[in-house]
Amino acid sequence: MTNSVFPDGFLWGGATAANQLEGAFKEGGKGLSVADAMPGGKARLDVLSSDTFDWTIDEDKYIYPNHRGIDHYHHFKEDIALFAKMGFKCYRFSIAWTRIFPKGDETTPNEAGLVFYEQVIDECVKHGIEPVITISHYEMPLHLAKEYGGWKNRELITFYERYAKVVLERFHSKVKYWMTFNEINSAFHFPALSQGMVKSTGAGDYHNVFQAWHNQFVASSKAVKIGHELNPELQIGCMIIYATTYSFDSNPVNQMATIEQNQEMNFFCADVQVRGEYPVYTKRIFDKYNVGELDIAEGELELLKDYPVDYIGFSYYMSSVVNITDEEAAKASGNLLAGLKNPFLKASEWGWQIDPVGLRIALNELYNRYEKPVFIVENGLGAIDNVDENFYVEDEYRIDYLREHIEAMADAIKDGVDIMGYTPWGCIDLVSASTGEMSKRYGFIYVDLDDEGNGTGKRYEKKSFNWYKDVIATNGSKL
Ligand code: BGP
């Protein structure tokens, strides 16, 4: 469209992750993943913070909604056809490591898994949809968590390299856009899903978290190397969770604390993956968290330098506030991710503070810091949707959220930021990562399933479906 600020070829689409929608968790030769060991509801948070959780799957005691997902494994053609109906230019999904290497430490891949993703990719291509693949999204093989202690063990670099090589070799001619690890920096808060470490296997000890990160950085650079050797045109990005962070007030002490929080939560991982070296503030962080010496093998720092990522993929849901001068306020904040309450913002039902201007700030911060293209690969509003008798959802609240964030993206483009695309999270309803439940929904497509797995599983277009279709058709000029 001529009057759009969004460039031609802008990648409008949607995003999902294997463990949250595929289901079929034991089919096609798939092995168990750490996500498969995560029950739904409050039990999920309990096991994550337990000292003794041993990754046992107890189906008599807990409900595991992601074992069924939305059965995308058997419905991917229908789902991708719906994405095509909305006019998606791209579709971000992840490959389940456990469909390719069921235990993670095998040497021969599982052909049935590769065939499944080949079919998914071909289905996208058939509809003119560009696949965007996350190589690992919160679902490393359970065996690697149990037997090797997760990512703190450097043997995982070899296993990941083998896995990445297999999928890159197989799919590089059809898939240009890749990401190495989903929300790599989230391990500060949630090392179970992203690093395969619960308390009993080393989470809570920051040495382990940072060692695990180092091993992941090396693994990521190895994937970039393999990908670029296969095809220099491939675009392989990092993927971080980004929460724009404000000082509560103009007290310089809070301002400095905000800078520190930004370094720790938002920038540390991206700095290494994009710039190819540990940032200057590393020592400060290592001292603060008692990290100690990392085990860094010969040649690894050079590898990081030689193979940085090509773009910055990031998720953006909310902003956060820092106030270290008011202990009461700090204590009142129960919500780890959302931080302190910002009086200028409204929040979702889960306390995630809605801040479209914060997205414009994030885009400016990231682009000015790295001067590499940025890709908003997750954004959206998790909400309880109510269906009418025809299973129609009037999700005006979701449309408002997305419209305001797209307007913020348009403003950032006018600021000079190079944005590759936009893939709102959970474009079809799926299982929530933090609650493990179906009822926190993000989709343009309603899926008739509840937290206990009851329902027909049928798909229904919500009001936002047609709205987003128009957004894409007009390249973002009709909001
Ligand atoms: C991100 C994850 C996704 C996803 C999303 C929404 O952190 O990459 O996997 O689920 O957040 O979070 P939730 O499902 O907890 O609402």
UniProtKB/TrEMBL annotation:
Task: Write down the InterPro entries for this protein, in alphabetical order.
Answer: GH (IPR017853), GH_1_N_CS (IPR033132), Glyco_hydro_1 (IPR001360), Glyco_hydro_1_AS (IPR018120)
- Tell me, what is an example of a GO biological process annotation in this record? carbohydrate catabolic process
Could you read off the lineage of the organism from its UniProt record? Bacteria, Bacillati, Bacillota, Bacilli, Lactobacillales
| Name of the protein in question | 6-phospho-beta-glucosidase
Record keywords, A-Z: Glycosidase, Hydrolase
Q: Where is the active site?
A: 378
What Pfam families does the entry give? Glyco_hydro_1 (PF00232)
GO cellular component terms, A-Z: cytosol
Provide the GO MF annotations for this entry: beta-glucosidase activity
**What domain of life does the native source organism fall in?**
Bacteria
Family annotation (PROSITE patterns): GLYCOSYL_HYDROL_F1_1, GLYCOSYL_HYDROL_F1_2
Keyword hit for Hydrolase: yes
Entry's family note:
Belongs to the glycosyl hydrolase 1 family.
